[in-house]
Specification:
This protein is an alpha+beta fold. The chain has 31 helices and 20 strands. α17 crosses α22 (about 545-555). It binds flavin-adenine dinucleotide.
Length: about 750
Amino acid sequence: MALRLRRLGYEVTVFDNNPLPGGRAQVYTKSGHKFDAGPTVITAPFLFDELFSLFGRRREEYVEFLKVEPWYRFEFFDGRKLDYGGSMEDTMQEIDRISPGEGQGYRKLVEFSKRIFSVGFDKLADQPFHKFGVMLRQVPALLFLRSYLSVYTLVGKYLRHDLLRRAFSIHPLLVGGNPMRTTSIYCLIHFLERKWGIWFPRGGTGELVKAVVKLAEEFGIKFVLNKQVDEVIVREGRAAGIRFSDGGKSECDLLAFDADPPKVYRKLIDSRHRSKWTDGRLDNLAYSMGLFVWYFGTTKKYPDVRHHTIIMGQTFKELLAEIYDEKVLSDDLSLYLHRPAATDPQMSPDSGDSFYVLAPVPNKKAKVDWKEAGEKVRQQVERQLEATLLPDLGKCLEVSFFVTPDDFEDRFNTLWGSGFSIAPLFTQSAWFRFHNKSEELDDLYFCGAGTHPGAGLPGVLSSAKVVEKLVPPSRPSNESEFQQLFRSKSRTFSLASLFLPAERAEAIFRLYYVCRTLDDWADEGHLDKLKDAIESWRTHKPHELLDHYRFLQARWGLDSAPLTELMSAMLKEQDGVAIESMDELIEYCHGVAGTIGLMTCPIFGVTNKTALKHADDLGIAMQLTNICRDVREDAENDRVYLPAEFFTTKPTPSYFLNTESKMSLEEITSVKMRLLQEADRRYLNGEKGISFLPWRIRIVVRWAGRMYREIGELIKENPETFHDKRAVVGKWKKLGALLPCLSRSILT
Ligand SMILES: Cc1cc2nc3c(=O)[nH]c(=O)nc-3n(C[C@H](O)[C@H](O)[C@H](O)COP(=O)(O)OP(=O)(O)OC[C@H]3O[C@@H](n4cnc5c(N)ncnc54)[C@H](O)[C@@H]3O)c2cc1C
């Protein structure tokens, strides 16, 4: 989160009440044993890779991910085991061993899970859901994917055997949900695991936290630990700062919480500033379960115990009812046992083993006195493990301590001591979940487990991506200024932009501001500014202007390459231009104009590769037209774009300025005609790309292309006049061209 805000140019300070960074991923070290406190299963490793690559770094240089095999071992109450992981065939074989013939059912489940993934993760996980319209648009897809079913019900449609249904329904528990009620969207985890596997950071999850902190510090983010925030300072309807438990305070331009949103609203923001998230409403939400986690070290090694073992109790539905509905402690617990040394031997001392075991329990809405119950549950868990996987456990315990929902409430600041914030029900997901941009106060944002898309490391990382899309760059981001600039400098596009939906138009204005400013720096000889921008871009450092492009990247998925190419093409122009060949000219046109087409496509919702090629062609065609229009003006600025290879002798700028000789004017005209021919060819290609665009945008692009072609036609008709004079398309002609563009765009 902090990293993504820094990317937008904010000076970021992270305050956290815990002694180490990482939140629930604390690390406890006792008597030679090291324990990761929380997350241990790394799915979606690509999200971490992406985070590092945003800063031009490779995750591998900071932390190594080790492959975990099997992903999980299931130990059932009747002594049967199931190893889940490896190839599809490995898992199918294991399933067939438990229930012959059911492997195929699992294959079909994964196939369906892939379809859920392609919507639920690919399209929705990092999309802002603070507007109800966004939610409404997704309803058909969600219904089609049967997201109204629970995970358990959906799994039951593919697997018949009771033990298999239980095993393949447990995923919601990893993010705090009851499998009997959690929306089946969470079945996407099956595909996620199948496609990317399960990983563990060498040295433990703590090393992953250290890696992220190192990256953050390299980019100037500060961490202030052991600092409890007690209050959000509200001024004129905006979050203006925070007050600490020690009486100190910190003012800010923008406040982003990675904390439990219900707790923040309830305890940190005075109720008079809350109209939606009233205390009553917060109390009525369904909260995820609590966690009992026992960390223990032994003097004995248990080499047969896998890295992740799920120990299923006798009951399943009954246990879930006890946890979520009846809110009582069960005497038949299901457990998750973590033995990291199975993957990374350095995770335990030479002579022993280090573990944690986690039991889902009711959250603090239950009437359980954990001061008393904690030790009893620990003993119950010890007995269960001793009787099954860890014989002699009692005799070889060396280190032992545990956390209960009390600790989650006190040390991790969650309401009702929940392990994962509010539960991932359909009615508490997407728009119904806590919004990443607060509805109550301006300049207040949320990411983390309680927000869209939800708990778990992939969810939390995706929620940070959402916030990056919502927070504008810190420096001047006055939308109306961008718009004014756009309208004053680019009249053709300005008229065309009236057809754009507001949000896309704003993005185009912002993009125009970035490109125009760079262009002005290049034209006005501000080499220092251009070079500084290129260097900041290369080193991924915040930059006043380029942060706007980064914001567009986060929001609309713009690629980095076009901006890199645009700036380097501009830099090349600085020492005068003398293009040698047509190839060189096309490369230049791509750099300064084709790239603009590539940047605008994602804003128009187009990412198809063929369409991008057409967009590039359209940009090149327009630039070729520009070049033919401005030959004289460019020559005055020591720039010759007409390729030398087409002239009898290499032309200097003065050749284009002293055109008394009819011969030279004829030669220049013939070269211009060649370029305009090439432009026409590319306009045709560009026209093919227009069909990829939404219809309103088709009008805009088709019309703009048409205007440029008109300029080319004027030059072709009267080359000599338009050598000394700039070819301009008249207002009425522009309007006249609109009608055919409109009808063609609507009809095709
Ligand atoms: C035992 C356990 C095992 C898990 N296993 C996995 C797993 O294997 N894989 C997986 O993907 N996920 C796992 N998860 C879930 C995952 O760890 C969480 O969903 C994720 O870490 C939540 O991240 P977060 O940033 O939302 O909150 P946190 O990690 O809780 O970070 C928030 C931090 O802000 C601090 N804070 C909150 N309020 C304040 C305040 N007022 N003042 C100061 N500081 C404050 C909190 O104390 C905390 O340190 C596990 C969770 C637990 C508890």
